[in-house]
Design a protein that fits this description.
Elements: E1 5-8, E2 12-16, E3 31-34, E4 37-41, H1 44-56, H2 82-87, E5 92-95, E6 117-120, E7 124-127, E8 131-135, H3 141-145, E9 151-155, H4 157-174, E10 175-180, E11 186-192, E12 195-199, H5 207-217
Parallel strand pairs: 3-6
Antiparallel strand pairs: 1-2, 2-4, 5-10, 7-8, 8-9, 10-11, 11-12
Length: 225
């Protein structure tokens, strides 16, 4: 079960990928998750409540005395599909470590610099700057075939366009766009202080990091991409 929702008095629901924990609300400096939510009011709320009740009152549910878990990161086998994705017209971005792309707070300090772990956790899919899907769904085999997920499909040109524009502006600063050279080789492109930077190998990685990632990827099923 991977559904996430917060409903108040059957009048309003918050949907997205956020879990309940300090790391999802900027309440700890040890780890940070960048997340996204949407506040829903109207006829969709009873549907969200019904989805919650379906699980809460299920015969499979048992009271928990303790909650234990750890974050799971998908295998980086997507590297094998970079060229095919870019050739197919997909705009591919790879997120930077937050420690190197930190933003300053009001007092001038770097907000995230020095985190031992940081992760992009928000989930949304935009279509033609008119439609949006926001929810718990990851674009991977586990969400498609194994997990139960929850989300909302929105038709809002203004909201979708604003969100897409915001993503486009941030992506080249907070991440690397993966492109192909005229020779068909991969390059990673980003902006540093307004200047375009290009890399011929995966940025911010060393030889042993790349080697160990390739070795470990052999043991991860392709279905878990």
């Amino acid at each position: 079960m991977h559904n996430k929702s917060l409903t108040a008095d059957n009048q309003a629901s918050i949907l997205g990928g956020r879990n309940i924990g300090d790391e999802y609300f900027d309440a700890t400096l040890e780890v940070g998750f960048t997340d996204m939510d949407t506040l829903c009011i109207g006829p969709v709320v009873p549907e969200v409540s019904a989805a919650f009740d379906l699980y809460w009152n299920s015969r499979w549910v048992y009271p928990l005395r303790a909650l234990v878990g750890e974050s799971y990161a998908d295998a980086k086998q997507v590297a094998a599909y970079r060229k095919a994705l870019v050739r197919g017209g997909v705009e591919l971005y790879e997120f930077k470590p937050l420690a190197s792309s930190a933003t300053a707070t009001d007092d001038g300090r770097s907000r995230w610099r020095g985190l031992s772990r940081a992760s992009l956790h928000g989930k949304f899919i935009g279509f033609d700057r008119r439609y949006l899907f926001v929810g718990s769904f990851n674009v991977d085999g586990r969400s498609v075939a194994l997990n139960t997920e929850l989300g909302v499909f929105l038709e809002s040109p203004e909201y979708a366009s604003n969100l897409s524009s915001d993503f486009d502006q941030r992506a080249m600063v907070l991440g690397y766009r993966v492109v192909l050279t005229e020779q068909g080789e991969l390059q990673w492109v980003t902006l540093e202080d307004g200047e375009e930077m290009r890399f011929d190998v995966e940025p911010e990685t060393g030889y042993w990091t790349r080697f160990s990632t390739r070795v470990m990827s052999v043991f991860v099923p392709e279905s878990q991409l």
